[in-house]
């Protein structure tokens, strides 16, 4: 699950278009004695717990379990440390623009025609997102049936390592004041809590611009009881079937970067488990590859059917995001998401800013056209950016600019995921069905109207050219290749059509292994024993304004619960 950021289809993401021009910092990589390349793994290993996926949830889960058990964490990517495009705020867009086979962010395009990414690095989405850190609402915690005290303790455990109070400068201050001016009230100051109104949230970027990821939570791990194998691609979960009993997971088969196959088995004991934390694409994909899923799909790929489970891969949702690009007559600071307006109509208003390098943007457009099999005639940045009320000569590179976006909460609209092959490295095919439910479209319309009001507000006037209107800026968005969806002339006069035509991702997709449909309230997979799914694929709706805080919390929360159950079993 990618956290509070925008879509990298060039102009589609507000960060995808912003080169963040601040000095480059290098962060020393914490030295983990327990993290090594999977090529060094023995052919066969044994552990109490095997965690598949060293992402936002998996790192917290593995670190917690290692406090009382022997744990193996398998991650298909490498370390986030030492890569300045991950560790430094100015590398954010370059990281997402990397389409190489070893990129930490793996590009995929949904059937809806929207560009998206999945993480391929220790730390998961927290290593490639825009860093906003905010908790889920109390109502969300209650709906999930979680223990509020343990949830709060788990959030605090995460926050001690990765969350920081950002420094708010001119652009973010203007957005904050604009939100208050147009009625997104009250002002709640700085807080991690999810509260209606306008607030300053946390960030996993510290005030020196260094990123702190879920991989940092492994500093909590017992180095004697945990092993982390990097560049380890899990091919299949293996099960034991006996008589009339349910199949029981007892290990995994994984491959290293040189193509060597390895087996990791669970030690003997009824409390030992395989824990799947591969994310909203990876977890349902791995269940299917292991024989748990819709029988039609499994048969189509000649996968032995362990459990015919039609709900695996269903309920896939991605929160729609729409944005407006705002050239500024005055210098702007480099900022990612810091301020958010949490509206009563369930739309979240956020912003980012920084110098825009047009030449770099056009090179990136060329790369995306190649990946999307589009010609540059149909997929390009205009050679001259024309915005009514602004002298074109002022729109030169580097351009002082920012974006203001709205994200639809929920959402109500859902889709599905299907396998493309038996290769775990290959992205499954995903359909999110943006705005299929009319309630999501109405939330977007309300959100975009609020964005327009903020742009036109007195509080924001220092960052808006005097003769430019929000409508002119929205019309300009229609000229950029935000996605692969068709464009309609009515989008310039209809908020509804604007939302549909310019929809992007904010990387908060979820579902595929939902609670009550694929897993129970303890995240145990229906129909089998010894297997749980603990990540954002279990969510019915996205928590809060950005899910990463809650996904990390969930790893810690469930790790404690699993260890508690283990201890209770010993007493009994």
Automatic annotation (TrEMBL):
<dbReference type="GO" id="GO:0016614">
    <property type="term" value="F:oxidoreductase activity, acting on CH-OH group of donors"/>
</dbReference>
<dbReference type="Pfam" id="PF00732">
    <property type="entry name" value="GMC_oxred_N"/>
</dbReference>
<feature type="binding site">
    <location>
        <position position="536"/>
    </location>
    <ligand>
        <name>FAD</name>
    </ligand>
</feature>
<feature type="binding site">
    <location>
        <position position="121"/>
    </location>
    <ligand>
        <name>FAD</name>
    </ligand>
</feature>
<keyword id="KW-0732">Signal</keyword>
<dbReference type="InterPro" id="IPR001613">
    <property type="entry name" value="Flavin_amine_oxidase"/>
</dbReference>
<dbReference type="GO" id="GO:0050660">
    <property type="term" value="F:flavin adenine dinucleotide binding"/>
</dbReference>
<feature type="domain" description="Glucose-methanol-choline oxidoreductase N-terminal">
    <location>
        <begin position="279"/>
        <end position="293"/>
    </location>
</feature>
<dbReference type="InterPro" id="IPR007867">
    <property type="entry name" value="GMC_OxRtase_C"/>
</dbReference>
<dbReference type="InterPro" id="IPR036188">
    <property type="entry name" value="FAD/NAD-bd_sf"/>
</dbReference>
<feature type="binding site">
    <location>
        <begin position="507"/>
        <end position="508"/>
    </location>
    <ligand>
        <name>FAD</name>
    </ligand>
</feature>
<feature type="binding site">
    <location>
        <begin position="75"/>
        <end position="76"/>
    </location>
    <ligand>
        <name>FAD</name>
    </ligand>
</feature>
<dbReference type="InterPro" id="IPR000172">
    <property type="entry name" value="GMC_OxRdtase_N"/>
</dbReference>
<protein>
    <submittedName>
        <fullName>Protein HOTHEAD</fullName>
    </submittedName>
</protein>
<dbReference type="InterPro" id="IPR051871">
    <property type="entry name" value="GMC_Oxidoreductase-Related"/>
</dbReference>
<dbReference type="InterPro" id="IPR012132">
    <property type="entry name" value="GMC_OxRdtase"/>
</dbReference>
<keyword id="KW-0274">FAD</keyword>
<keyword id="KW-1015">Disulfide bond</keyword>
<comment type="similarity">
    <text>Belongs to the GMC oxidoreductase family.</text>
</comment>
<feature type="signal peptide">
    <location>
        <begin position="1"/>
        <end position="26"/>
    </location>
</feature>
<keyword id="KW-0285">Flavoprotein</keyword>
<feature type="disulfide bond">
    <location>
        <begin position="444"/>
        <end position="499"/>
    </location>
</feature>
<dbReference type="Pfam" id="PF05199">
    <property type="entry name" value="GMC_oxred_C"/>
</dbReference>
<feature type="binding site">
    <location>
        <begin position="547"/>
        <end position="548"/>
    </location>
    <ligand>
        <name>FAD</name>
    </ligand>
</feature>
<feature type="binding site">
    <location>
        <begin position="56"/>
        <end position="57"/>
    </location>
    <ligand>
        <name>FAD</name>
    </ligand>
</feature>
<feature type="binding site">
    <location>
        <position position="234"/>
    </location>
    <ligand>
        <name>FAD</name>
    </ligand>
</feature>
